[in-house]
Amino acid sequence: MRFLARRLGFYLLTAWAAVTLNFLIPRLMPGDPVDLLVARLKGNVDPAAIDAMKRAFGISDANLWQQYVDYLGNLSRGELGRSITFFPTEVSTVIADSLPWTIGVVGVATLISYVVGTALGVLMAWRRGTWLDGVLPAATFMHAVPYFWVALALVFVFGVTLEWFPVSRAYALDVVPGLTGEFAGSVVYHAALPAITIVLASMADRILGMRNVMVTTLGEDYVVMAEAKGLTSRRVMWAYAARNAILPNITSFALSLGFVVGGSVLTEIVFSYPGIGSMLLKGVENEDFPLMQGIFLVISLAVLVANFLADLAYVILDPRTRQ
Amino acid sequence: MNVLEVRGLGVDYQSATGAVHAVADVTLDLRRGEILGLAGESGSGKSTLANAVARLLRPPAAITSGSVLYRRRDGTEADVLALGPKQLRAFRWKELAVVFQSAMNSLNPVATIGSQIDDVLRIHAPDLSRKARAARAAELLQRVGINADRLRGYPHELSGGMRQRAAIAIALALNPEIIIMDEPTTALDVVVQRDILHEIGALREEYGFAVVFITHDLSLLMEISDRIAVMYAGRVVEVGTARALRTAPRHPYTEGLLRSFPRLRGPREELLGIPGTPPDLRSPPPGCAFHPRCRHAFDGCADERPALLPVPGGEVACRLNEGAGADTAAREAS
After folding, report:
1. Mean pLDDT of all residues in chain A?
2. Is the pLDDT of residue A119 over 90?
3. CA pair distance B210, B216, nearest whole angstrom
4. Residue A88, preceding bond cis, omega within 30 degrees?
5. Do residue A244 and residue B93 have CB atoms under 8 angstroms apart?
6. CB–CB of A244 and B108 under 8 A?
7. ipTM of the predicted structure?
């Protein structure tokens, strides 16, 4: 438990650092959104209007320390400022509207990819030397292929050419959002292709990672002893070999969970999926600093939470860390 | 009576540069309830032989010849090498258990000691209740001198000696007829080693299992074994009672092993050791594999491989002793 308390302290410190950097970086950059807007309008703007805009966007000329205190205060109330792209919508609302889509698609896809990939890795290590080894070159190939390429290929083949799946949006235009079977069906139908992209593109890593650790673990004495004990193959494979081989993979899984929130930006863009990745792109395009800042904050906090969960999982799965 | 009969067993490791004959034409008997020591340098094939008997070899190792016969107390016999997967699972641990070299690695680090005893009992004695299994596990731990509250403990919480005791407790779980011990004390300090050896002896008296005790430490074998088999380059070169080997080693290799370490008692002797290195098993020397390192080698040694022939107190494969074998044969005939 002392281990967890120490980790928790470490993460709180890291979270504070992330928040502070998130505050500092945009302010250290020259200019602000209003300047950019004015520049785009070639300077033909009434100074009073500029002042009004500055106030509306929450840009102040107070000293940095005062701004920092205000920022922390706003943050504690969940206020991330107003988005410029979607003015006057609050950044928190933009994030709250897009995050569920991302977590739904990327989260579920990551989970599927992890579970299936790990199970396949275990099997391939167990049956090494059989036809299953033929999957290895394919996995290595998929390992090297970038997400967006898979996305483009799937859109082209199944979306555009065969027209089996929709190529944009999270649900059909003629469906009313609500707790209806029709809406749920439409959401799943629209999420299928992006999810398949992520599963295909990330599963190879899981397979290869798990297989490699598992092959090493199979050589351990305790696995040989489990076999000598006359246990069933299934028990040797899962309770002795896989149970130990999975430990190093927990960390990478937790990290990928953290990046779920960051979304697979490129995948979302290719599928015009209204997740947080698409929002981030829009924020960047419109130099929407409050939105970017808000999204980055959510991403960094998600990574921290995922890491803490990984530590927690480690403590549960590996008795050697429970000191 | 023999509980295990190994006949002409050969094991090859397939490698890119040819087959390595790790075990070649080994014939060996294990008598019921005896401690048979298996000695030899690293790479002499002793562990491979043990793994072959326990059917634990993995590719690239494969049994190429020979047979292993297991004889139960009721007189029924089983051809170990021909057991199907289901029969093999039943044979394992119930009839033949293994204690591995380093108990540090032979216990599952993420499972409690109790659960590692329990899963054996659950598979092999399915009619035992959960309570009975827990009681048996506690009894086993206490029998090897570990407090029963360690059942809920994990391997990393135990010292090296305790882990090896726990591994022995697991081996005893089903009262096997044979326990193969592959260097069970090599990683332990001498005091703990002494305790464990004592414990093994006491348990053997109590339960009557036979032990195949593998080690490179011949002096240790002299103390605990009934009989000793010495292996060199995958072959058994000498078998004999511990007393016969200690007082009158017949094979020059056995003599070399014996005189590789100082004697604690008796007159001071020069440490002979064995010059040279073990041969490359892909292409062992012709004739007797030991002849390039043998201080008594003569011309004939490279020509013909000596057979394992009976001599008083055991068997030896060395041309120096062929006359001795003939003498015994003659004596026995008369």
Report:
1. 84
2. yes
3. 19
4. yes
5. no
6. yes
7. 0.83
Distance from CA of A323 to the nearest CA of B (A): 10
In three-state secondary structure terms, B177 is coil
CA distance A211 to A213: 6
A79-82: long-range contacts (C-beta < 8 A, 24 or more apart)? A80/A290, A80/A293, A80/A294, A80/A297, A81/A57, A81/A290, A81/A293, A81/A294, A82/A56, A82/A57, A82/A58, A82/A290
**H helix intervals, chain A:** 2-28, 33-40, 47-57, 64-76, 91-102, 108-126, 135-144, 147-154, 181-218, 221-228, 233-235, 243-245, 247-262, 265-270, 276-285, 289-317
In angstroms, the separation between the Cα of residue B299 and the nearest Cα of chain A is 44
Which run of H or of E encompasses B95? Answer: none
User: Is there a contact between A288 and A91 (Cβ–Cβ < 8 Å)?
Assistant: no
Tell me whether residues B110 and A244 touch, CB distance under 8 A. Answer: yes
User: Residue B89 above 80 pLDDT?
Assistant: yes
Nearest to B261 by CA among B217, B231, B309, B306: B217
Look up the pTM and report it: 0.79
Q: B149-153: list long-range contacts, CB under 8 Å, 24+ apart.
A: B150/B113, B151/B112, B151/B113, B151/B114, B151/B117, B152/B112, B152/B113, B152/B114, B153/B112, B153/B113
Domain covering B2-333 in this structure, CATH number: 3.40.50.300
What are the angstrom distances between the C-alpha of B329 and each of A105, B311, B312, B315, B317?
84, 8, 9, 12, 15
Nearest CA in chain A to B167: A225
CB pairs under 8 A between A and B: 77
Mutation choice for A interface testing from B80, B106, B178, B182 by most A CBs within 10 A: B106
Tell me the CATH class for A91-321: mainly alpha
**Residues of chain B that touch chain A, judged by Cβ-Cβ distance less than 8 Å:** 54, 56, 59, 88-94, 97-98, 100-102, 105-111, 119-120, 123-124, 154, 156, 167, 170
Provide the token pair at B215: 């080690």
Beta bridge partners, B69, equal B5, B79
